[in-house]
């Protein structure tokens, strides 16, 4: 579509494009990073006036990582090591990636993320970093089968015990809550089933904490190294199907709080919408208007489609500038205003207005590339 002289992206209304920055593809050897393919794509996007979002993909771990850290592979409840493999949505292999609590694998992810941001942070077309594509603990266990739950490795056990110590302070309190008689923290057994409810709840809450902590460092790294570019991630809403709190373990509300822009895959039914809006809180909500113009984010009513539903912050003046007259005939503007509790005669939201989006000077959508 780009570079063939047809300018079809302009006729279709595209303003943005997203490129995947894949760990396995762009970091094939330890300490060697090759972003040449993304450089060429970014050149092409900038030439055609398109804003660029980079989506970092970490659930495609490189071969060298497992050669260096064979114990980084996730360990299922049934004792099975999750060997790296290919799947339709990760055809490069290395899926589902290493245990999130393995220290060596964590440092390798951070090194790759840092190199990617440093490489592209000065490109004028780069406006967003989508730091996590549909966060989930491990793809093989979306259906929450007990024997397939992860991760039961020694690193997760050590982190879990530390998490319990911070929560309960002393072993006596844990014993009272769980109904146990441990003498020491090292005696704590990892929950294997739901028959003793309290320990299993803690076990899954710990993994939700792990996912939130992972999201936090990724977002903070963008803010540290590329403060002029916005950082966000996009979830599959945690509505029990297909993602759920037991197995995939992503807390939509916790990660939304940390994002400059919050987004979600919206392709599994209308019940996704209230979950995303609830996680968004007081933020304004935007969504792409159709799959054919998915790069153009507009303030319209969220819908059931292959869309991205985002929350972000606007200045009141910017809210007004996109619908300069109170009698706008654009139904998308009116639907958005009505949902936000804004009267037809006013462009002022009744809810508290958030602060402007960091990295955009408060303007939304971001200005076109010159």
How would you describe what is shown here?
With 370 residues, this protein is α/β, with parallel strands linked by helices. Helix content is 35%, strand content 14%. It has a domain at 8-145 and 206-314: Alpha-Beta Barrel (TIM Barrel). Strand 8 and strand 9 (297-298) form a beta hairpin. The longest helix is centred in the middle third of the chain and has 29 residues, at 197-225. The two termini are 20 Å apart.
Concise account of the structure shown:
The protein is an alpha/beta fold and 370 residues long.
**How would a crystallographer describe the biggest sheet?**
5 strands, parallel
Weakly predicted, low-confidence segments: 284-370
Measured distance between first and last alpha carbons: 20 Å
Counting helices, strands and paired strands, the structural category is: alpha/beta
What is the CATH topology classification name of the domain at 8-145 and 206-314? TIM Barrel
Number of helices, counting only DSSP H or I runs of 4 residues or more: 12
Radius of gyration, Cα only, in angstroms?
A: 22 Å
Label the overall shape: globular
β content, as a range?
5-15%
pLDDT averaged residue by residue: 78
CATH C-level of the domain at 8-145 and 206-314: Alpha Beta
Counted beta strands: 10
**Strand and helix order:** HEHHEHEEHEHHHEHEHEEEHH
Residue share in helices? Answer: 25-40%
Name of the CATH architecture of the domain at 8-145 and 206-314: Alpha-Beta Barrel
Task: Kindly report the spatial arrangement of strands forming the biggest sheet.
Answer: 1-2-5-6-7
Write out the CATH superfamily name of the domain at 8-145 and 206-314.
Glycosidases
């Amino acid at each position: 579509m780009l570079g063939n002289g047809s300018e079809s992206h302009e006729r279709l209304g595209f303003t943005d494009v997203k490129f995947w920055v894949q760990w396995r593809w762009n970091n094939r050897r330890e300490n060697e990073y090759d972003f040449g393919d993304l450089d060429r794509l970014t050149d092409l996007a900038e030439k055609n006036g398109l804003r660029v979002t980079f989506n970092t993909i970490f659930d495609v771990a490189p071969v060298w990582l497992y050669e260096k850290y064979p114990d980084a592979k996730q360990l299922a409840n049934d004792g099975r090591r999750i060997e790296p493999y290919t799947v339709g949505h990760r055809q490069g292999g290395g899926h589902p990636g290493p245990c999130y609590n393995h220290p060596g694998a964590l440092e390798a992810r951070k090194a790759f993320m840092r190199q990617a941001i440093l490489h592209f942070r000065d490109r004028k077309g780069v406006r967003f970093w989508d730091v996590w594509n549909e966060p989930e603990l491990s793809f093989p266990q979306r259906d929450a089968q007990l024997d397939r739950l992860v991760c039961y490795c020694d690193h997760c056990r050590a982190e879990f015990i530390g998490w319990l110590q911070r929560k309960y302070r002393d072993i006596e309190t844990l014993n009272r809550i769980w109904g146990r008689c441990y003498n020491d923290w090292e005696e704590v057994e990892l929950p294997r089933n739901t028959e003793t409810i309290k320990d299993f709840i803690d076990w899954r809450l710990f993994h939700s904490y792990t996912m939130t902590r992972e999201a936090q460092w990724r977002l903070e790294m963008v803010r540290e190294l590329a403060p002029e570019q916005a950082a966000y991630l996009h979830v599959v809403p945690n509505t029990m199907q297909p993602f759920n709190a037991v197995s995939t373990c992503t807390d939509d509300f916790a990660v939304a709080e940390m994002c400059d822009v919050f987004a979600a895959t919206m392709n599994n039914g209308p019940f996704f919408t209230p979950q995303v809006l609830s996680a968004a809180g007081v933020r304004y909500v935007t969504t792409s208007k159709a799959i054919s113009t998915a790069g153009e984010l507009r303030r319209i009513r969220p819908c059931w489609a292959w869309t991205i539903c985002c929350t972000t912050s606007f200045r009141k003046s910017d809210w007004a500038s996109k619908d300069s007259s109170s009698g706008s005939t654009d139904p998308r503007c009116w639907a958005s205003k009505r949902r936000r509790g804004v009267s037809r005669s006013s462009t002022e939201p009744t809810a508290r207005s958030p602060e402007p989006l960091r990295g955009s000077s408060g303007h939304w959508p971001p200005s076109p590339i010159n």
